[in-house]
Amino acid sequence: MAVKELALFLVLVIYVNGYPSRGVKNQCVSKTKTIPIVSRDEWGAQSPTSITNLTLPVPYVIIHHTYEPGACYSLLECSSAMRSIQNYHQGTQGWADIGYNFAVGGDGSIYEGRGWKAVGAHAAGYNSVSIGIVLIGDFVFQLPPAHQMELTKELIEVGVELGYISKEYSLIGHRQVRSTECPGDALFQEITTWDRFTPAVNTK
């Protein structure tokens, strides 16, 4: 095929099918990890009303659970959960966007919330110094699936490698900085065994 014909063919493919990344999971790549990221466009996010940038790298990673909506195990279910969370945070709470930086679904994917660079609204007093990661589901009495927890750990590792999270970060549960059961008794007990879990948190 001639160069001009090839170029025209590619233009037609893009025009008809869209760019290859559309509708396909993106990837967040570090030197050692490649993790699946579902972008805001892919899960159907509304635009934020404002954005405040984090000062990077952040010293805290804060773990949450959604409680409601419950666990999800497919792109369709998890995307619906993300839209539900954002609608509540923006419409009811009056926040600028979904509160979390990232969400981890039971389907084996990570969902982009505010991302690495924007201040979240997930832990009052600590939003500007943390990345907030929520595991979608109710984990008061039972743990998330092993792959969901492992993906959460991998996300943190990538954040460290890419310079968004401090190498000396402290891992904490939401309940350590606010009166709440979040991230659920079962999940909280689990994260006490994770790398860099910090029992005592500096008062803000």
Automatic annotation (TrEMBL):
Residues 1-18 form the signal peptide. Residues 49-184 form the N-acetylmuramoyl-L-alanine amidase domain. Monomer. Gene3D superfamilies: Peptidoglycan recognition protein-like. Keywords: Disulfide bond, Immunity, Innate immunity, Signal. It comes from Papilio xuthus. Residues 35-178 form the Peptidoglycan recognition protein family domain. Belongs to the N-acetylmuramoyl-L-alanine amidase 2 family. Disulfide bonds join C72-C78. This is Peptidoglycan-recognition protein. Pfam families: Amidase_2. GO terms for molecular function: N-acetylmuramoyl-L-alanine amidase activity; peptidoglycan binding; zinc ion binding. It comes from the Eukaryota. GO terms for biological process: innate immune response; peptidoglycan catabolic process. The lineage of its organism: Eukaryota, Metazoa, Ecdysozoa, Arthropoda, Hexapoda.
